[in-house]
Amino acid sequence: MTSTEISPAQRYRDLAAGFTARIDAVPADHWDNASPCEGWTARDVVRHVLDSERDMVKVVGLELAPGPSVDDDPSAAWAAVRDSMQAILDDPAKSTLEYDGHFGRTNLGATVEGFLCFDLVIHGWDLAAATGTDTTMRDTDVEWVSEIAAGLGESIRMSGVCGPEIQVPDNADKATKLLAFLGRKA
């Protein structure tokens, strides 16, 4: 790792803090608002993130600590999953556990970084868009997610991942172009 690269644990910590801020900004009466993800509410976006994280660690024989239901307390449910995932990522013996993934042999930390951290940025935007809170994404996150999305190619269009690309003007900003590539209207 070079001095400009960060570990999966560090990236997760940083992006999870941003996702936490987005959750904490949601007004109590906005959890059932429709999200940009077809058929999902704001609460469903958080549920998806939690379920993805819980399912991810199972592929290497681990479990996240149980926590409250997203239906009862989305913030507390997220905090329980986040803290449990962070503890796993901070333990090299666990974060480097290998498995055979969709794109070949990999390890838990790499998948969390390339998939779950991606979700924290994009579903953070979905959550903010659903609830009328600040949808701004950091430029560094937009660039990082754009690189990952481009690397995924057409596999990003698999059922249940992202919708078809939306056309935007050539002079649109990078965040708008990224969201459009992922089937979202900024």
From TrEMBL:
Pfam families for the chain: MDMPI_N
InterPro entries: CHP03086 (IPR017520), DinB/YfiT-like (IPR034660), Maleyloyr_isom (IPR017517), MDMPI_metal-binding (IPR024344)
Occurrences of domain Mycothiol-dependent maleylpyruvate isomerase metal-binding (ranges): 13-128
Top-level taxon of the source organism: Bacteria
GO molecular function: metal ion binding
Alphabetized Gene3D superfamilies for the sequence: dinb family like domain
Protein name (record): TIGR03086 family protein
Source organism: Rhodococcus erythropolis
